[in-house]
């Protein structure tokens, strides 16, 4: 009898203890932690990035808002359930977990709000946040301290419930701070949504640039341009030395070693080359809109009887196919039923934006791990097509788009059926990303690590195959072919006594084969002082069109032995689709002689 009463008392005590844990105070704390943490990670932080960088995403805001809201809500519900289960098991287990989650929220919020001055734009390069070891170490120490401090203080308060020091505000500090974090971010994101111009960045999924029309060349005359991204002059020099067969493959070409780009990024280099419109620090959408509305190279060619085929990158060169409609012949339309959106798959909307959010919330030492593999075209997999549209040029130029173009030209040979003269401009990934898949196009026995020069050599195999087809059709000799980089390797600038200096000259490769050039191995010219600024005028010059309104052409400088002043502009990324001019360098004479580079006064 006594044993039964004792057992009954223990059961009553146990039930009373469990019930006492599930009170309004604990439930409210669990709910607020779940909401604040989940919405910070999956909703507020990624939406702020999206709104501030709309031009970098190929989908509109509506395609991001709802899936991220659903993800945040599901995460909050899951966290709430997990905390309740842990509370059912043991109060200490719940306390440690919930305060750890709150600590992560606190540390991430502080990092995001006050310490992200080192964040960079995604370019496809490795992002180095750990250059200053002292700063990185202190940053990590602060993050870890803030993460575990709530756990430490809560456990002490649990052991010493009467302590006014550790039981500050009667245990209400955590829910108060979660509410504050949530409301502040809600107000900030809400304000950004209200003030954002979502109509500025038009997204058109049913119109696309097609490979198929670009396969038709003219028996009369063609101007073929291959823009090979980041084809740095030093890398090209190394490629020529390492792969001597290049001189034979570039039959009739001249390699101009003394060429520079005007800009240090793909944007605004490529649109400037095609439109002759200089970038002056405006937002990306404003710039490309005005650029394509102006007196562009394609418009001049169209007016003079050329077919114009543009196989170019959406994220850096134009914002809508509609901008190209009147000056481009390879635009095609697909059914809306063919277009689908990748929300949760590899490279999809939710996974990619979550990774960006993690990078924003994490300490310097971890940021690179969150963004590994991400580049300027990080949203290229957000849109998919249900049917296999082999002729569709992907919106983003990257390794995959190069391989797709390579596959297409091998399965759909060139022809010489065009009734009009042809201008074709194809943007290849080049040396922008190290890629074994591109290296394997010419060498299947290579080893890691992949070098830029190897990747460049592999990408050039696509160009060589294209030119071999031109020779088989008999249109190689009568065609002008230009192969050039939009910019060289990323510049490294050193500040000394308030002045900026490049660590070395940044050269950009340029190779030209004029129509009816001698069939001899590639020649090398290191004297002609050229720049990508001369590209627009040069295209009109090769087409036999008056080019004076666009300035000097390559031929003007070469034949007249001119010594024009040339300029290279470096930039800082300022968000909201905008670059801010950093340093303007004036080059007088040989650009490979670094003494000829001078930073202009601001």
Explain the overall architecture:
The protein has 602 residues and is of the alpha/beta class. The chain has 19 helices and 18 strands. The strands form 6 sheets. Strands 5-9-2-10-13-3-14 form a 7-stranded mixed beta sheet, sandwiched between helices. Strands 16-17-18 form a 3-stranded antiparallel beta sheet, with no helix packed on it. It has a two-stranded antiparallel sheet with strand order 1-6. The chain is elongated, with a radius of gyration of 30 Å. Residues 8-16 have low confidence and may be disordered.
Short description:
The chain is α/β, with parallel strands linked by helices and 602 residues long. It is built from 19 helices and 18 strands. Helix 3 (62-89) packs antiparallel against helix 4 (91-114) and helix 13 (349-361) runs antiparallel to helix 14.
Biggest pleated sheet: 7 strands, mixed
| Order of adjacent strands in the largest pleated sheet | 5-9-2-10-13-3-14
Strand content: 5-15%
Helix content: 40-55%
Instruction: List the total number of helices.
Output: 19
Structural class: alpha/beta
End-to-end C-alpha gap: 95 Å
**Mean pLDDT across residues:** 90
- What is the overall shape? elongated
Would you count the extended β strands for me?
18
Unreliable spans are: 8-16
Rg to the nearest angstrom? 30 Å
């Amino acid at each position: 009898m006594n044993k039964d009463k004792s057992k009954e008392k223990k059961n009553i005590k146990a039930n009373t203890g469990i019930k006492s844990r599930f009170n309004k105070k604990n439930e409210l704390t669990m709910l607020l932690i779940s909401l604040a943490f989940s919405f910070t990670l999956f909703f507020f932080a990624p939406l702020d990035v999206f709104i501030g960088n709309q031009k970098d995403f190929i989908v509109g805001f509506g395609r991001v808002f709802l899936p991220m809201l659903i993800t945040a809500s599901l995460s909050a519900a899951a966290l709430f359930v997990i905390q309740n289960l842990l509370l059912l098991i043991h109060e200490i287990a719940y306390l440690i977990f919930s305060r750890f989650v709150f600590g992560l929220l606190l540390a991430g919020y502080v990092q995001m709000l006050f310490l992200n001055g080192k964040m960079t734009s995604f370019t496809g390069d490795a992002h180095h946040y750990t250059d200053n070891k002292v700063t990185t170490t202190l940053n990590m120490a602060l993050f870890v301290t803030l993460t575990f401090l709530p756990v430490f203080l809560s456990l002490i308060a649990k052991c010493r419930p009467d302590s006014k020091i550790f039981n500050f505000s009667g245990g209400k500090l955590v829910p108060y701070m979660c509410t504050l974090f949530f409301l502040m971010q809600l107000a900030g994101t809400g304000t950004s949504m209200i003030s954002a111009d979502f109509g500025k960045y038009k997204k058109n999924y049913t119109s696309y640039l097609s490979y198929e029309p670009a396969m038709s060349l003219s028996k009369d005359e063609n101007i073929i341009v291959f823009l090979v991204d980041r084809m740095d002059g030093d890398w090209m020099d190394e490629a020529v030395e390492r792969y001597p067969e290049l001189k034979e493959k570039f039959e009739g070409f001249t390699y101009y070693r003394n060429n520079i780009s005007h800009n240090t990024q793909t944007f605004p280099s490529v649109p400037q080359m095609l439109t002759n419109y200089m970038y002056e620090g405006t937002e990306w959408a404003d710039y490309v809109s005005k650029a394509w509305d102006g007196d562009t190279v394609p418009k001049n060619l169209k007016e003079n009887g050329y077919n114009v085929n543009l196989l170019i990158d959406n994220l850096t060169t134009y914002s809508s196919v509609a901008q190209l409609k009147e000056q481009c012949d390879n635009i095609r339309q697909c059914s809306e039923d063919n277009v689908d959106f990748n929300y949760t798959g590899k490279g999809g909307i939710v996974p990619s934006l979550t990774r960006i959010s993690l990078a924003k919330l994490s300490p310097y030492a971890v940021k690179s791990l969150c963004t590994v593999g991400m580049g300027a075209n990080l949203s290229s997999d957000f849109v998919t097509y249900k049917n296999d549209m082999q002729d569709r040029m992907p919106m983003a130029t990257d390794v995959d788009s190069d391989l797709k173009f390579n596959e297409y030209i091998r399965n759909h040979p060139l022809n010489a059926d065009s009734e009009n003269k042809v201008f074709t401009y194809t943007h290849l990934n080049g040396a922008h990303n190290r890629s074994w898949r591109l290296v394997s196009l010419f060498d299947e026995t290579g080893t890691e690590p992949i070098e830029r020069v190897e990747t460049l050599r592999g990408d050039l195999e696509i160009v060589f195959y294209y030119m071999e087809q031109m020779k088989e059709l008999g249109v190689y000799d009568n065609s002008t072919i230009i192969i050039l980089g939009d910019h060289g390797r990323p510049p490294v600038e050193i500040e000394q006594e308030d002045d900026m200096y490049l660590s070395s000259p940044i050269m950009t490769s340029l190779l030209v084969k004029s129509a009816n050039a001698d069939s001899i191995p590639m020649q090398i010219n290191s004297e002609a002082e050229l720049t990508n600024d001369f590209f627009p005028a040069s295209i009109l010059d090769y087409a036999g069109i008056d080019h004076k309104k666009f300035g000097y052409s390559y031929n003007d400088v070469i034949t007249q032995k001119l010594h024009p002043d040339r300029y290279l502009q470096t930039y800082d990324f300022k968000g909201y689709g905008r670059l801010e001019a950093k340093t303007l360098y004036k080059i007088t004479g040989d650009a490979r002689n670094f003494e000829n580079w001078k930073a202009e006064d601001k």
